[in-house]
Amino acid sequence: MDRDEFHLGRFRIDVRQRELTRDGIPVQLGSRARDILCVLASADGAVVSKDELMTRVWPGLVVEENNIQVQISALRKALDDGPDGQSYLVTVPGRGYRLVGGKGVPSQFRPPIPDKPSIAVLPFESMSDDPDQRYFADGVVEEIITALSRFSSLFVIARNSSFTYRGRAVDVKQVGRELGVRYVLEGSVRRGGDRVRIIGQLLDASSGVHLWADRFEGAPEDIFDMQDQVTASVVGAIAPKLEQAEIERAKRKPTESLDAYDYYLRGIEKLYENTRESIDRAMPLFARAIELDPVFAAAYAAAAICYVRRQSSGWMADRSKEVAEAARLARAAVALSKDDATVLARAGHVLTDVAHEFEAGRLFIERALALNPNSSNAWHLSGWQMVYAGDPETAIRHFAQFKRLSPRDPLMPLALSGSAFAHFFAGRYDEACALAEQVLQESPDLHQALRIFIVSHVAAGHIDQAQTALSRLFRIDPTLRVSNLANMTPLCRPEDIASYHDGMRQAGLPE
């Protein structure tokens, strides 16, 4: 792995040249501050102690601790990015310092290029007169990504990571480095009157050379055929040896009703926002899609996932009623589509997480991974499945695969929270603490992250920090008790239940 570069949002650290730039413009730093920055960057998001910094930056010298504090202060000022004044340089009390990337998720060095054709599909520009039509362009791209992902001979970056480049003037070479892919697909969608036009172009990420470009035009009801044409053309350009039978197998329309598809796309847009208000708005959109097309499996599965978000965040008003509805939707989704990896993964997760039907949930998620090993969503949900089942090491590997397939995913805080749970149940409390802290840098009110932060810090002997976090959690969810923890984190191993519940008790959670 190339460890010479480190990216923090708009910042880039070149360790070899000892240089910090922001939007390509050098940032002035003193020599010692640059040394500290390079040491922290080389740690790849891990905590670096003050003793190690002194040894690495002032080798053979005796210096006072405030020398580090002066340089850290200078670095924080240099790395201050955004109106909220959030710094990418974080102090870990009693342990040292570390760099966190973007909005709090650890920055990564360049991922290795896979040993098979790899591609990222960037958000297509919406050329429609109506600015609210962006969701339609997003839906076109999502379907192309889904279709490409069905080819086991391709490595496809997940939608959520690709979409972090929305609205940015991107350099495809940089995209290739940051996502670890050989090819980048970009394009535009124009939807007006009774016509839809898709324009796509495929580029070699290493050179920026155009490999293929084409335009597809038709009536709105032809949108799925046009998506199929784009997919087949891209695959033909980057993997000419793929059999035509596989291309034909990848052609699958999510629904015959364009109106239902429209409501589904609007719902997906809200689901990805992952707030209480957005989930409340997504649910009736999915319900309308189902009403218009009663056999639209993806809409059933997406509607069911809304209940996972409601349960894990303490938003359920009538739990027994909502659990029953979530399970009904999940079972209906599976009955309608037994070979759609996203549908199976979401339905399996709902049955495990909400309905506590562990065996059925496991089988559906395993089938999803077998059908589509490129599904980042399936790897993420399988990670949680392994946490619940009491297999933390497998959970960590599955979350890592999710991270590789979607390294810039806005749902990364949920996956990192899952990894923190796995490390906690594996007895690695320091790692669990560090992961939970990373998540809370970006999402200070994330229910799962606060819960694992609390029990991990109790186990690590940091009771004061655990109690402070519990106070914050109570403000978010005053109904939380030890007796209802199992609803939110359905664990199977008795020893996991005991350590989790005892940790919350020690922090002060009432029975």
Describe it.
The chain has helices spanning 31-42, 50-57, 65-79, 134-149, 159-162, 172-179, 223-238, 244-250, 258-273, 276-292, 297-312, 319-336, 341-353, 358-371, 376-389, 392-405, 412-425, 429-442, 447-459, 463-476, 485-488, 494-507, and strands at 5-8, 11-14, 19-22, 25-26, 89-92, 96-99, 118-121, 125-126, 155-156, 183-192, 195-204, 210-218. Strands 7, 8, 9, 10, 11 and 12 form a 6-stranded mixed beta sheet that branches. Strands 1-2-3-4 form a 4-stranded antiparallel beta sheet, with helices on one face. It has 4 domains: 5-99, Orthogonal Bundle (Arc Repressor Mutant, subunit A), CATH 1.10.10.10; 118-253, Rossmann fold (3-Layer(aba) Sandwich); 255-368, Alpha Horseshoe (Serine Threonine Protein Phosphatase 5, Tetratricopeptide repeat), CATH 1.25.40.10; 374-511, Serine Threonine Protein Phosphatase 5, Tetratricopeptide repeat, CATH 1.25.40.10. Helix 15 runs antiparallel to helix 16 (392-405) and helix 15 (376-389) runs parallel beside helix 17. Helix content is 55%, strand content 12%. It is an alpha/beta fold and 511 residues long. The chain contains 22 helices and 12 strands. It starts with a strand and ends with a helix.
